[in-house]
Design a protein that fits this description.
The complex is a heterodimer of chains A (243) and B (243).
Chain A lengths: L1 E11 L2 E11 L5 H11 L19 E4 L2 E4 L14 E4 L6 E3 L2 E2 L2 H9 L15 H8 L9 H5 L1 H4 L10 H11 L9 H8 L9 H5 L6 H17 L2 H10 L2
Parallel strand pairs in A: 1-5
Antiparallel strand pairs in A: 1-2, 3-4, 3-5, 6-7
Chain B lengths: L18 H23 L4 E2 L2 E2 L17 H4 L1 H8 L2 H10 L32 H21 L2 E2 L2 E2 L3 H18 L2 H9 L8 H14 L2 H23 L10
Antiparallel strand pairs in B: 1-2, 3-4
Helix pairs in contact in B: 1-4, 1-9, 3-5, 5-6, 6-9, 7-8
The chains are: A alpha+beta (243), B mainly alpha (243).
């Protein structure tokens, strides 16, 4: 049985430092197992948020060797043997203790998104092709890794202006729903701040559910905003059609 | 942003994150230098029956004292400059905004506006460059067909194959464009009502998954196609005739 060295951030909003632990590595072990070992054997007060250990609850988002990822989905055997593994909290949100951050800003943003608004007086037969595009977005487990890696939130701190990738796909889910009746393009442009995104695709790279956040979510939203605000030909066609 | 964890260093990543932006900057920079030199040179762009793609369609007008390439290259240049893939590539490699995921950008300015203000708001006109580049592409296909028509009759030379492959690769790049995908069907909410556009959108989506690949190989090949015509026109090499 080999041994891994973990350097885990210990501290809170007032500061902290890396603390080194030696953890025996077993076959199939993930970083979250190593953190549990540290809790059990060394420091019982190590704070780490987790729940399912199956990459479905989105709780154990951390930065391992500087890369935002789920601790429960990061196998220990993928790291070079003998080299220390650093484990930090996600950077974009205020730290509470050790590896736990306060992600409540996301829930406040969620409240700002207008509810799904279907027509109530029309019958609608739903076909598979009408819903399969938005089913991809419903795979989101709200781990907020995309929010964390987005440089607009992480480095520029524009939480006042941009909702972030997670909520872009939430809006996309509603915009592309065949029964949705409200036009969200003004909201997207002015309140959600879709124009702030510069398509560097880090959100897609870190998504543990492999949702194509930019290609299938944000870019189609940008194109819909372009239809309304940046495309005079589209405007003329809409006028001719009386829409 | 200071969250007390010491994550304010450039990055905690341990992998070679800088390799990708470095390669991107090198290749894009080399293409930019080569294409600028060739566009301004105004010579060695035709070797019967081959016309360099940088000069197609060839517009020779008395009122234009500069290289004819400048009359047409704005279209493919604008198409690539506003392309959703290239935006990712050059924002990362030239603007370092950010250079890689979970790596600090060059500037962590709090007044960041991304593509919501001038000049980057102009990225929203991507579809118009798509229209213009499609017109150029029609001429490139014409050139590819003409490239089989030699003075001594119909034949096949290496240049015929090069110009044909060039037109095919540029077509793949155009068909995989995000704006094209939106315009052929992505802007619909109810696919079941428009089965033809749903199929077109499906095909465009399949091409779109390889947009990055087509972007790179078409970029490199168009330069190689021009280089081949340049070398022929200057007499450095002679064309290989198969038939």
């Amino acid at each position: 049985m080999s041994e891994a060295i973990l350097r885990v951030f210990r501290g809170d909003a007032n500061g902290g430092e890396e603390k080194e632990y030696k953890v025996p590595v077993e076959e199939g072990m993930v970083v979250l197992d190593a953190l549990h070992y540290i809790q059990a054997e060394y420091d019982h007060d190590l704070a780490v948020r987790w729940n399912c250990k199956a990459a479905k609850c989105g709780s154990c988002s951390t930065e391992i060797n500087g890369k935002p990822q789920l601790a429960c989905k990061s196998r220990m055997d993928k790291f070079p043997e003998g080299q220390p593994i650093t484990v930090y909290p996600i950077k974009a949100f205020p730290i509470m203790k050790d590896l736990v951050t306060d992600v409540s800003w996301n829930y406040e943003v969620n409240k700002k998104i207008p509810e799904f608004t279907p027509a109530t007086d029309e019958e609608f037969t739903m076909y598979q092709e009408d819903v399969e595009r938005i089913q991809e977005f419903r795979k989101c487990i709200e781990c907020f890794l995309c929010q964390n890696v987005c440089h607009i939130l992480r480095n520029h701190e524009r939480k006042d202006a941009f909702f972030g990738p997670r909520f872009m796909i939430k809006i996309a889910e509603r915009v592309m729903h065949p029964m949705e009746k409200i036009d969200r393009r003004e909201f997207l442009k002015d309140e959600a701040g879709v124009g702030y995104c510069n398509i560097t695709k880090c959100c897609t790279e870190v998504c543990p559910e492999d949702i194509h956040i930019t290609d299938n979510g944000i870019i189609p939203l940008k194109e819909r905003v372009a239809d309304k605000y940046f495309d005079p030909l589209s405007w003329v066609l809409r006028k001719i059609k009386g829409k | 942003m200071s969250n007390g964890t010491g994550q304010n260093v450039l990055t905690l990543r341990k992998d070679a994150w800088w390799v990708e932006p470095l390669i991107t900057a090198t290749v894009l920079g080399a293409f930019g230098i080569y294409s600028t030199w060739r566009a301004l040179s105004n010579e060695f762009y035709f070797s019967d029956p081959y016309l360099s793609p940088f000069y197609s369609p060839l517009i020779l007008a008395n009122w234009w004292p500069f290289s004819p390439a400048l009359l047409i290259l704005w279209a493919p240049l604008g198409f690539r400059a506003t392309c959703y893939y290239y935006r990712k590539a050059y924002y990362r490699s030239f603007f370092l905004s950010p250079p890689a995921c979970a790596v600090n950008p060059l500037r962590s300015n709090k007044d960041y506006k991304g593509e919501s203000s001038f000049p980057f708001i102009l990225q929203n006109v991507h579809r118009f460059f798509f229209y213009a580049a499609t017109i150029i592409l029609i001429f490139l296909w014409y050139d590819a067909i003409i490239a089989f028509n030699f003075r001594d009759g119909i034949g096949i030379g290496l240049g015929s194959i090069v110009l044909t492959i060039n037109a095919i690769l540029l077509t793949l790049y155009s068909l995989s464009c995000h704006s094209f995908r939106h315009l052929v069907g992505g802007n619909l909410d109810v696919f079941s009502g428009c089965p033809t556009r749903f199929r077109l959108w499906g095909a465009a989506s399949a091409f779109n998954e390889r947009h990055m690949l087509y972007a790179w190989i078409s970029l490199v090949f168009v330069a190689l196609a021009d280089l081949y015509v340049f070398l022929l026109a200057k007499g450095i090499i002679t064309d290989v005739r198969f038939i």
